[in-house]
Design brief:
The complex is a heterodimer of chains A (about 475) and B (about 210). Chain A is an alpha/beta fold and about 475 residues long. Chain A has 21 helices and 13 strands. Chain A has helices spanning about 5-15, 20-40, 45-60, 65-75, 90-100, 115, 120-125, 135-145, 160-170, 180-195, 225-230, 245-260, 315-320, 320-325, 340-350, 365-370, 375-390, 395-410, 410-425, 455-465, 465-470, and strands at about 80-85, 105-110, 130-135, 200-205, 205-210, 215-220, 235-240, 245, 270-275, 285-295, 430, 435, 450. In chain A, strand 5 (about 205-210) and strand 6 (about 215-220) form a beta hairpin. In chain A, helix 2 packs across helix 12 and helix 15 packs parallel to helix 17. Chain A is globular. Chain B is built from six helices and twelve strands. Chain B is about 25% helix and about 25% strand. Chain B has about 210 residues and is of the alpha/beta class. Chain B has a single domain (about 30-205), classed as 3-Layer(aba) Sandwich (Rossmann fold). In chain B, the strands form three sheets. A six-stranded parallel beta sheet of chain B has the order 1-12-7-4-2-3, sandwiched between helices. In chain B, strands 8-5-6-9 form a four-stranded mixed beta sheet. Chain B has a two-stranded antiparallel ribbon with strand order 10-11. Classes of the chains: A alpha/beta (about 475), B alpha/beta (about 210). The complex binds iron/sulfur cluster. Iron/sulfur cluster binds near residues 312, 314, 316, 371 and 375 of chain A.
Amino acid sequence: MTATMHEFRHSAFVAIEDIQLQSALEGATHKFGTGRTDALAEVPEVEAMRDHFKKVRAATLSQLAHHLETFEKNATAAGTQVHWAATGDDACRIVLDIAQKHGVKLVTKSKSMATEEIHLNQVLSKAGIEPVETDLGEWIIQLAGDPPSHIIAPAIHKTRHQIAEMFTKETGQQVSADDIPGLTELARQVLRQKFLAAGMGISGGNIMVAETGSLVLVMNEGNGRLVTSTPPVHVAVVGLEKLAPTWDDAAVWLSLLARSSTGQALTIYTNIITGPARPTDPDGPQEVHIVILDNGRSKLIGTKYEEVLQCIRCGACLNACPVYREAGGHAYGNPYSGPIGAVIAPLLFGLDKYSGLPHASSLCGACKDVCPARIDLPRMLLELRADEVEQRVLPWWESMSERAAAFGLASPGLFKYGTAVIRQLQRPLAKGDKLNLPGKLNPGQSRKTPALAKRSFHDIWQSGELDNKNGGE
Amino acid sequence: MSARDQILNQLRSNERPAEHPEPWRSRRNFPDLAERFTQTLTAGKGEVIRAANFEAALNEIDTILHELQAKRVAVNDTAPLDGLDVTKRWPDFEWFVAGKSEGDIKSFCAGADVGLSGADAALAETGSVVVSSGPGKSRLATLLPPVHLAIVPTSILTSDILTWTAARQGQPGANRVLVSGPSKTADIEQVLAIGVHGPKRFIVVLYDD
Ligand code: SF4
């Protein structure tokens, strides 16, 4: 999937027409947004804490190689097998190799944006290994064959009726759409069997803590504990930027993550994994693997886009974004949606393929205000727009017309002359104060494009008419 | 060149000196840690039962197990329960003592009614209980049964995650979980549902020691 300007606009228009989706988006983003505000308000000196966290993230990225090596050393000492993947394909191959070595047929997965990013499920399925998503929302979209529509709530676009129908089809059991606890219980029973039967568990990771070589996974459902505790092998795929040098840093990270995300002080479970089960442990996996994923991240270090790697995937910027709230996640054409997606997708997956995303923003700055790491997303959206011009990823006619406009707008004489000409040319198309442009030529699509007024403001001003009208005092 | 070297070299070529800020310390000062713990965990749909001392806590556990009509109970053989022979004290139940009982712990826990554990620490701010793996400490006991019952002395309460990490010592075991309530989800139309994968009830017996 991609998201050029045309594709983004098209999907956004479809989303805006969908009344059910609009109310789901409105409900979820509003709930998360107010939850976030209330949860942060309860924390002493929270603004200073965010400033501190920003400094931690920036300092960590400046010395990322050093911290990753420390992580590798300590994780290895604890018995974890650390792998490095330059690309998404490499990461998939590493995971597949581990699965095949153990003769695994069934894999349980906990929610992970990184494995969405590298399309791991498709690779496993093709090799005859069944991956089962176990986060309830992820399972729902897996059954539906949809991509996630929100970083935190991947199935917000699905109604309970659609969900009940899919569950019935999958399990053969009748269940009422109005019985949400019943739907949840059914998922519990079906997935519990999968947990117990799986030969391998795959997770993402919220934080790698270098100090102890630990991996931190946060969740509310508990599936991320089952995935990492029940099968004999656990594999985690983690973006290389998700690193906290010390537990002090991780504690601040965790203090901000759930509050920014769902408005909880902490998620129900904060699961910390430091190597496989020790010989004296009564249970736990025999092998733990961590795949450190680059996939285009390392080349951003030292550039004007480095800041985007400070992201902790809390989703707060999605909930705050007026464009996301209308367009929904699917319009972004990749697993990362909202303002963070608009910046990171072009950087990781190609500006040409995602050329519409830097424009999917009114630059209102709401994302930067709510970001726990105070990431300046609006700045990077502008940088990306500039890159588009420089790299000429826009169609020739668009950059030509932009150039012509820039030239004309810079000169009062040309502007006056140009608009006079357009005024004459638009005559056959103008109807009242709107233009009747045919189909594709209409930039406003379902809305009408306004015509140029009969007289310019400049002209009216000069004539002195305004003085007489408003000049009573 | 290996992927590892390729990635690290790329990162190293842009490495800059950086000043890592001094650790952020907790600003919390709760007048009553047990009070705050109880409030927060209860608000998060967990249950807290206060007891005056260890013996009273054991009596509470007795009541809860009978009220739940539990038959099979998995227990972690760890403080403060390690000095106690649970099979003698509560002979009505079928017990699996982690690290001691014979048999497959996974299938026992999958069919158990209650998992009983101690705790390493408890965080007042977030109503969280810290449970670790280790000798006699099963992960599945607190995960697979529909009820997780934890017995927690007030002396292990600390303000928040910041004070907890600030007091850290040594290398952690294989697994450590901060539990802050029963398993929950809001993935179907944002409606809260309790008990999707983990325990449906999380009950803490908090006693003064
Ligand atoms: S950019 Fe900031 S607000 Fe958006 S997901 Fe990342 S950390 Fe959260």
